[in-house]
Amino acid sequence: MARLPPLAPDVTPGVAPVVAAAPALRDIAWVFLSIGMQSFGGGMTAWIRRDVVQRRGWMSEQTFVGGLALAQITPGANGVNLAVFVGTTLRGRLGALAALSGMLLVPVIAVLALGAAFTHVRDVPGVESAMAGLGAAAIGMNVANGLRMTRRGIRKPWAAVLMLAIVAAVGIAGVSLLLALAVAIPLALWLAGRAEGVGS
Q1: CB 71, CB 86: distance < 8 Å
Q2: Do 99 and 161 lie in a common domain?
Q3: Are 50 and 8 in contact, with CB atoms under 8 Å apart?
Q4: 17: which residues sit within 8 A by CB, 6+ positions away?
Q5: Which of 41, 67, 139, 189 is a good FRET partner for 199, with 20 to 30 A between their CA atoms?
Q6: Whole-angstrom Cα distance, residue 90 to residue 36?
Q7: Same domain, 179 and 192
């Protein structure tokens, strides 16, 4: 059954988390291989965050959230893009290759096998309902992970307002994600700069 990874204890507010030294390539490959084997039903972002940020401290929360934003605005699957970002940040191009190959090895083999099997059972009663249930679980995992990241990644009132505005624009009004980001990213940079100027 699809599930989110357990959360590590939250870092103390106002105290910067300790970021570990760059890991070996084999460690990156092993961590992402483990993620690829465990992230059933979706929620890849939650698993990457748990292992890279919370468990091993390879990356700060702020860097991870920034990478997630880049992964979402870049063409391609978010999980794949995020793995490439993490690997590149940690160990350059070889790190990206280690993360990507580790993460995709088991899922590619599994999907090829399950896809071949699904062609033989897709007309069996109950299979369509089961697939719908798996989809609902994956959506729920992504929503739960978004809420968890919001508690730790949204620290400023203007950031919360901007987040809600994007949710309303994209999720309710149907505004294109690219258009929303084209407006939100420069606005966020301006607001962050203005907030730092006021606070200094």
Answers
A1: no
A2: no
A3: yes
A4: 11, 53, 57, 60, 61
A5: 67
A6: 19
A7: yes
Task: Report in angstroms the alpha-carbon separations of 128 from 107, 118, 120, 121, 133.
Answer: 21, 11, 13, 10, 9
Q: Are 84 and 99 in contact (CB under 8 A)?
A: yes
Residue 33 corresponds to which tokens in the numbers above?
């291989």
Q: Are residues 117 and 162 in the same domain?
A: no
Tens digit of pLDDT for each residue in 67-80?
988 888 888 888 89
Look-up: residue for tokens 């994956």? 138
Q: Which among 120, 97, 116 has a CA at the least distance from the CA of 108?
A: 116
Alpha carbons 33 and 26: distance in angstroms, whole number: 10
The answer to whether position 130 is within a domain reads yes
What is the domain extent for residue 104?
25-153
Q: If you average pLDDT over residues 140-157, what whole number do you get?
A: 75
Helix, strand and coil content of the chain, in percent to the nearest 5, comes to: 75, 0, 25
Q: What is the Cα gyration radius of the chain?
A: 19
pTM for the full predicted model:
0.62
CB atoms within 10 A of CB 98: 25
